[in-house]
Amino acid sequence: MRQVCDSRTDFPRRLRSARGPALALAAFAGLVASVPAMALPPALMGSKITATAIPETSTNREALVHKVAVFGTDQRTRLPRHMQALRSSVGMIYNEKSRTVCSAFCVADDVIATASHCVFRTKGEQPPPAERFFFARPGTKHASVRFAGAPVRASAQQIIAGIVGISTKPPIDAARDWALIKLQGPACKGTALDILPLTPDEVEQEAAADRVFQVAFHRDFGAWAMAYSGVCAAGRRVEGSNGPAPDRDFTDPLNLLLHTCDTGGASSGSPLLVHTPGGPKVVGINVGTFVRSRVMIEEGVVVKRMPASPVANTAVSSIAFAARLEPFRQANVLSQPADVRELQRRLAGMNLLEAASIGRFDEKTRAAIQLYEARVGLPVAGLPTRAILQQLQGDEAAALPSSSHLERGVRRQGTR
């Protein structure tokens, strides 16, 4: 007996007959499939990046150019002349060790935003060293720049994210897939994009007025030229998309944006923008593509897989991260190893961290800080800051008996 089943699954890494949907991280999955071609030459690290800096080989071109995130006719064009200023605001992050590339954009003089999975990868995968990342803006005079903390191997703690290691299986973490990253110096000075915290319903209204668009770098578009999507649909739902169901398929659906802006490989982390009288403003971060595939099953075994089709692109609403930017900018993050170890020892003393984690900042340390912040009623960020260390020191001091209490205890024992 044969039957044809519809399923929504991840692409292009694999097609499965699994029930339920998943998210195709178009940039991330494509990058994994094409590691050699995505590398930036070491000679260009820390220097101006040109449009021809990244080579393309005939052996992997087919895997790179699959247009999984294009809806209908491909509407992508080169950035219009009147939008050329965005070339200084939107760039890419690349890692010289893992050979991965994603889009990213300036949100403050020394802070960029991107998708969390671009830095921390997905659930169960080992993230690449944060010190090996660079932020570059191809085709401009802006030099590439490392993440803050790179010289002392402390870049990981210079990042705040909605989630670390997102799940691409239901419930999908797309609405938490954002990250803010401090740079080593004010490389974005004068080029930062304003964040406009609109709800998905408000974004839908802007899209209905033809004011929503997206710009990014795509592996299948030109020689790393910035692509402009044209105006596109966006909001809580996308008309005619036949799914997905945000309340069922995603965590935190109130911060999820669905959109039909045409994207491509390396576009994860790019800004979803809205035209305003004051210029383009950020209303979301592009994350990945929700796709549907069809499989033919015979006696419980998949015997044929039909091509997957994109249903909608996903993005994180700016509401999820807008309020985090200024506190993150002002945070005094610990960078010296001795200070980080001291913070870790105090967390371990409160049974919030395993002793094995002391000596390096890892995701267990980040989680321990978040647990402590939640316990004492602080905003949950997971950053190893000077303020957190001082509060931990104060908590420990308050828990110890004072000298006067000890003296009174000794006197009482002596009178017995």
Overall description:
- 22% of the residues lie in helices and 23% in strands.
- It has 416 residues and is of the alpha+beta class.
- The protein has two domains: 2-326, Thrombin, subunit H, CATH 2.40.10; 331-399, Muramoyl-pentapeptide Carboxypeptidase, domain 1.
- Strands 1, 2, 3, 11, 12, 13, 14, 15, 16, 17, 18 and 19 form a twelve-stranded mixed β-sheet that branches. It has a seven-stranded antiparallel β-sheet with strand order 8-7-4-5-6-10-9.
- Helix 8 packs parallel to helix 10.
- The longest helix has 14 residues, at 363-376.
- The protein is globular.
- Residues 1-20, 26-66 and 400-416 have low confidence and may be disordered.
Distance between the termini: 89 Å
Count of DSSP E strands?
19
| Tally of separate domains | 2
Gyration radius from CA atoms, angstroms: 24 Å
**Strand composition percent:** 15-25%
The assigned CATH architecture of the largest domain is: Beta Barrel
Helix content range: 10-25%
- In N-to-C order, the SSE pattern is EEHHHEEEEHEEEEEHEEEHEEEEEHHHHH
Return the CATH topology of the largest domain. Thrombin, subunit H
Quick tags:
11 helices, alpha+beta, 22% helix, disordered C terminus, Muramoyl-pentapeptide Carboxypeptidase, domain 1, Thrombin, subunit H, 12-stranded mixed beta sheet, globular
What's the short story on this structure?
The chain has 416 residues and is of the alpha+beta class. The protein is 22% helix and 23% strand. Strand 5 and strand 6 (111-114) form a beta hairpin.
What's the layout of helices and strands?
Layout: E1 2-7, E2 23-24, H1 26-33, H2 35-38, H3 61-64, E3 77-78, E4 90-95, E5 100-108, E6 111-114, H4 116-120, E7 133-136, E8 145-146, E9 159-161, E10 179-182, E11 194-195, H5 200-208, E12 212-217, E13 226-228, E14 234-235, H6 246-249, E15 256-259, E16 271-274, E17 281-298, E18 301-305, E19 309-317, H7 325-330, H8 337-349, H9 363-376, H10 386-399, H11 403-414
Parallel strand pairs: 11-17
Antiparallel strand pairs: 1-17, 2-17, 3-13, 4-5, 4-7, 5-6, 6-10, 7-8, 9-10, 12-13, 12-16, 14-15, 15-19, 16-17, 17-18, 17-19
